[in-house]
Every structure is written in structure tokens, then in C-alpha cells.
Amino acid sequence: MPLRMLALLQRLIALGLLGVTIGAIWLAIQFDALPFLVIPGMVVGGYAATLAIEFWLLRRSYVDSDLERPSVKQLAHAWAAEAIGAPRVFLWRQPFRSNAEPDHLPGDRRGRRGVLLVHGFLCNRGLWNPWMRRLRAAGIPFVAVNLEPIFGSIDSYAGTIEAGVLGLENATGVAPLIVAHSMGGLAARAWLADEGRSERIHRLVTIATPHAGTRIADRGFGANMGQMRAGGDWLARLSGAEPPALRERFVCFWSHCDNIVFPTRNATLRGADNRHLVATPHVQMAYHPAVFDAVLRLVEGAGPVPSMVR
């Protein structure tokens, strides 16, 4: 599988950061000048500060009287989880391991429901590496797609999702379940908007998807980022095209500590099965054990997934 553009860009960033760190250490040793070690510290500090600003903006999106407003302790817990976990995604899994886990379409899985994994903005299929290992071990067919162009229209991803669904249909003979993180949930909904496609999936599970947009999109660029702005025409058209019966097959995971999608309730949908993840930041929601367990229940047909309790 060829190296995709996002993986290449993130690889260059990761190697550049590594080069800066090694260079600073070499200069400190070569010239006996410990101040050079401040350079990698500034990189780490800048990253931590950027995350802190995101969580500050998130907290500001709540009014003081809102009972769902996250506490400072919860936000600190979420900030630490994202600060530790996100670099593994953006500096390792996606740039260097995006092709490490191939799609799993065994020929003997007829009648076994498969899973289509759809990533979000500035991500690729490497996001799902832990999922793919667990799905393979459980014998569940899966396809993980790459959505490109990186800054293209969300509508332009329909062909990629169609190919993934078709591959699972051909391999298993049954409608797959779609699991989508962040923008990927909007891409899946946009694909579903075409007539007849709603019958080709079993369920749609979205994780931290800005169904009603996010304020952070106001500070971004690209066609897809523009479509994710809260109150935008694109989101209004998407929502207006969905029949209520289709929403009943959606499971939407959200968190009041989502540092990317806020107001955080924008990750829920009226008529869907909305489930809250306590004190969990944006990227780490994709790895919350409750999400995988819920998907496993849906794939295995173990009846309705029990509602999560805060």
C-alpha cells in the first residue's frame, strides 16, 4: 500500500522534531552548553500549552450555571490523557504504522458482519491500529479507509466509503457496521444521504463527531473544516436529509471534556442513542474500552447495547 500524503507529512514532522531534539543534545554536549536543552523543552511545552488552550476554550463554551460543565479536575485529567496519548497517534501510528495492519477480509467469513473504520480530520487509518489488532483476533472482518485529499470536501470522501462498504459486502454477504471518529462520522452520514444506502449498513457508531459543528472549525482552513463550522449550511442540509428512522440506528459517543468538538453536546444527535464518556478527550475517545465493547456487542448481535451511566 503506497504511503499517503498525510502519513508523509506527519513523518516529516516527526523526524524533524527528532532531529531538533538530537541536535540540541549534541550541541549541549559539544559546547558544554546546557541551555541548548531548552529547545526540545520548548517544543514539548508548546504542545502542552496548545492543548491547554483547547481545554480552556472548551470550558469557556459552557455557561457557569450548566450542571454538565466539566470540573477543573476532570479537565486536568483529560488534558494529561491527551498530552500523553495523542503523540503516539500523530508521531508514530499515523506517520510510520499506517499500513502495519492490513484490512481483514478472509474468504471463510460469509455471514459474519464486518466493520468499516473511518478516521477523522488530519488522521489516517493508522488511528485504528489497536482496533484492527483486536478485531482480527476476534475473527471480525474489517476495512480501514484513508480519507484524502486532506483538506477536501467531506462530500468527496463518499467514493472511498462506498469502496469500503462494497468490499465488506462482497466478502461477508451482510451489511457492515460503520465506526467513525470525529469528521469521519460526517463523511459516513454524507455517504448515507444518497438514496438506498441506508439499507446497506447495520449501524453507524460515531465517536466525537461534530454533528452540529464545532467552534474550533472557525479557526481552521480547508473545505472540510469550513463544513464543520457550527450553524453552517452544509450541516443543516445534511441533517435535513436524514429520516428519523435512520437516526435510530446511530450510536453517538461524546464527552464533556472533548477538546476539539465544543459545545460538546454538538457531538450528539436528536433521535440517536447518545452515550457519554466521562472526562475523556477527543482522540482518546477512540480508544475508550466502552466504545469497543459496544461495537463488539453490535457486531456479535448480542442484543441492544446497555446505556452507559456517568
How does the major sheet shape up? 6 strands, parallel
Quickly count the helices. Answer: 10
- Number-wise, the strands total 6
Helix fraction by DSSP (H/I, runs of at least 4) = 40-55%
Q: Which descriptor suits the 3D outline?
A: globular
Rg calc: 20 Å
Low-confidence stretches: 302-310
Strand proportion, as a percent range, falls in: 5-15%
Head-to-tail CA distance between termini: 42 Å
CATH level-two architecture of the largest domain: 3-Layer(aba) Sandwich
Strand order of the largest sheet: 2-1-3-4-5-6
CATH-defined superfamily of the largest domain: Alpha/Beta hydrolase fold, catalytic domain
Which structural class best describes the helix and strand composition? Answer: alpha/beta
Provide a descriptive summary of the structure in words.
By secondary structure, this protein is α/β, with parallel strands linked by helices. The protein has two domains: 5-96, no CATH class; 115-300, 3-Layer(aba) Sandwich (Rossmann fold), CATH 3.40.50.1820. Helix content is 44%, strand content 8%. Helix 4 (129-137) links the parallel strand 1 and strand 2. Helix 1 (5-30) crosses helix 3 (72-96), helix 2 (38-60) crosses helix 3 and helix 5 (158-172) packs across helix 6. The N and C termini lie far apart (42 Å). 39% of the residues are buried. Mean pLDDT is 92; it is low at 302-310.
